[in-house]
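input
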Amino acid sequence: MKRWKVILRYGVIFMLGLVLGMAGSRLAHKHRFAQIMQNRPADQRQMMMRHLSRQLELTKPQQIEIERIIDAQLKALSAVRERQRPEVQAIFQQAESEMKTHLQPDQQQKLDKIMEQMRNHGRMHGRRPPLP
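output
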């Protein structure tokens, strides 16, 4: 076989490996971030503490105080999210109703399925409690 064909094949294999490696890294990072967001308070606290401890070179007493502050911050943010949840749900429901007026009946059914999948996806990942 000619030398340039061999080089070309190895080059293609190398580029394919490079692309797959980058895609795999991106997916792994995205997956890890999704896990952190699912297990919000505990993982967020741990992630923030690790980052701040490293960047600010916190002493042990400082870490204890900073962690107490972060816990309070996360609880306050959770309370805000809970208060805003009904308003956010109302916005989604209004948008869904408005969209349906512009859709054919079969498209409306597909939209219903899409919206249900979105609601179920959020419940599966712990982002919101089950609907009554």
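quick obs: The chain has a mean pLDDT of 84.
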